[in-house]
Write a structure and sequence with these properties.
flat; 2 strands; two-stranded parallel sheet; 1 helix
């Protein structure tokens, strides 16, 4: 089992990546640093 760190304003893409990694049994730390106003 690996450990993944996703950082910085990835928004929907970051959440999609996190879902794929979680489905693969990875340990996820998701840090979305984008202001809410930047999200689609």
């Amino acid at each position: 089992m690996g450990r993944s760190l996703i950082t910085g304003g990835a928004g929907m893409l970051g959440r999609e990546i996190a879902r794929l990694l979680l489905a693969d049994g990875e340990d996820i730390t998701l840090l979305d640093l984008a202001p809410a106003s930047r999200l689609p």
